[in-house]
Amino acid sequence: MKKLIKRYRVFIIVFLAMIILVLVNRPLGTKAFTITGNSILEMLLVIPPIFVLLGLLDIWVPRETMIKYMGEGSGLKGIILSIIIGSAAAGPLYGAFPVAAVFMKKGVKFMNILIFIGAWSTTKIPMFLFEITALGSRFAISRLLIDIPGIIIIALILSKTVSREEVKILYENAKAMD
Amino acid sequence: MDSYIFYGLAIALLAVSFFKDKKKTKTALKKAWRAFENILPEFLTVIFLVGFLLAVLNTETISKIIGAESGWIGVVLAAVIGSVTLIPGFVAFPTAAILLENGAGYTQIAAFLSTLMMVGVITLPVEMKYFGKKISIIRNVLAFFFSFAVAAIIGMVVM
Fold first, then answer.
1. Per-residue model confidence as pLDDT tens digits over A88-111
2. Closest CA to A115 of B111, B139, B147
3. Has residue B27 got a pLDDT over 70?
4. Which of A4, A137, B14, B120 has its CA 20 to 30 A from that of B142?
5. In this complex, do B41 and A10 lie within 8 Å of one another by their Cβ atoms?
């Protein structure tokens, strides 16, 4: 019980802050709760299937297969696969982090994980269609064309700034997550 | 809409898995639950914080700050707002369209959308849990500055 409170303490503080907001400024507080409710609904739509798919991936796809396609030495194939998997995903960026953890466990190359995170954050295919309808194809296509090299450059810089040991620690950490 | 595809896929694969091996499927589900529960406190904190922030900021205030005449200061402000907010894409794009109609500039909107998607100050605790402090911070800083390149180019291309 004590452990549970400790893990959730930041959340408890934020929750109390919102209750205080309701008491001080009722319309603003209600609005905050309504928006939060909508976000929770959104989260319920996106997150549970991601975790179920991750669980299945973890159990059924052997490490060797993942390493072959996305591990060290997977080259351009690994990069392209990372972009495609990231772009096909739905949901906000925080949904990508647990996927990254499973990729780490399965021995996917760190550079490819970073590319995957970049693709998930900004070149999502379902969102691209949405962007075209809302802001026009000129806007959406320009953004996509700048973003793809941008993602790869950011991933390159990141993977150059961390040492092998640091990456190893992250991979160990991911293994300990379940 | 695309979330239903995920549900469909998850259910279909779960059925196949169950048919092939009940025990393995059970382990998979247990793993899924543990991975989810592991990150739940951070998730909840982020979601409540966002509700709090979005209630305080509204579209009018935002479009006043990042109008087409606001220049580079407006671009920087737009990038900062995008970094500290967390709005789902299907809300963000129509919101961006409304902001444009209300006088926001294309360059500013591009900066806002780009940091909104790539930079996550609020989700930083979640990110750090998986990637550690150093990588998470560097990634967010790089993405922040990259967004200015995106904004500058879109400002030139789309008029």
1. 776 678 888 989 999 999 999 999
2. B139
3. yes
4. A137
5. yes
Please judge whether B154 and A142 are an interchain contact, meaning their C-beta atoms are less than 8 angstroms apart: yes
CA distance A67 to chain B (A): 20
- Taking a contact as any Cβ pair under 8 Å apart, which residues of chain A between 143 and 162 contact chain B? 143, 146-147, 150, 153-154, 157-158, 161-162
Tokens of B62: 């935002």
Query: Please, what sign has the CA dihedral across residues A2, B27, B123, B8?
Result: negative
DSSP H or E run through B143: helix B124-157
ipTM above 0.85, yes or no: no
CB–CB contact A166 B134 (8 Å): yes
Residue spans of the domains in chain A: they are 1-47, 61-175
